[in-house]
Amino acid sequence: xxxxxxxxxxxxxxxxxxxxxxxxxxxxxxxxxxxxxxxxxxxxxxxxxxxxxxxxxxxxxxxxxxxxxxxxxxxxxxxxxxxxxxxxxxxxxxxxxxxxxxxxxxxxxxxxxxxxxxx
Length: 119
Prior knowledge:
Radius of gyration: 14 Å
Shape: elongated
Low-confidence stretches: none
Distance between the termini: 41 Å
Number of strands: 11
Helix content: under 10%
Structural class: mainly beta
Mean pLDDT: 95
Number of helices: 0
Largest sheet: 7 strands, mixed
């Protein structure tokens, strides 16, 4: 099995920055794509950014130029650097990864971390 532990959320003023981290643990044989999704109250969960195991990145239009996703394969960790934050970025951010651990690959989700941007 695989566990994803997220950290780095919090409260920040508009225009500020936060860095989210998501570390995977378990008997991981292969790590495929990892990424972040977010869900604001009353909204569906939406893609924020993903990064493939070849470091190909994909971003939602709403965060392009402000957010940067990266990964450290040796640590099975993905990072989301969020700059120029806006109140509309307020949401619970969830990490997702695809892993092979003896079976799979399977998708796993983190527990979520709250990001609140005040105006």
